[in-house]
Amino acid sequence: MKTAERQRLRLNRKRRVKRKVQVGQERLRLSVFRSAKHIYAQIVDDRAGKTLVAASSVSPAFKEKLQNGGNVQAAAMVGSLLGEKAASQGIKEVYCDRNGFHYTGRVKALADAVREKGIKF
What we know:
Blueprint: H1 3-21, E1 28-34, E2 39-45, E3 50-56, H2 60-63, H3 72-88, E4 94-97, H4 105-116
Parallel strand pairs: 1-4
Antiparallel strand pairs: 1-2, 2-3
């Protein structure tokens, strides 16, 4: 499958999921984006239009511990960093916006690590 086709399918999934989730949503949104080399996650308040907490595999806190940001272990570490930051700000409940990515591998590892820090989905 070609890259353009793969991206088109992902964006279709993204639109389909976002349409269902945004209707009357009052929780914060955990947005996940993954590239070939890195993974990024942030908790966003859509009503205020602000990012409350963010973590990624390119942040200095991550680089001290791991070098490679494109594997499951890195995603779990980014999730735990994000979960710690969110818990310190009093965030208890979010919904997971996986941005059209399949809920397996790195996306699942990140979500599980956030859950371990006490954040509910």
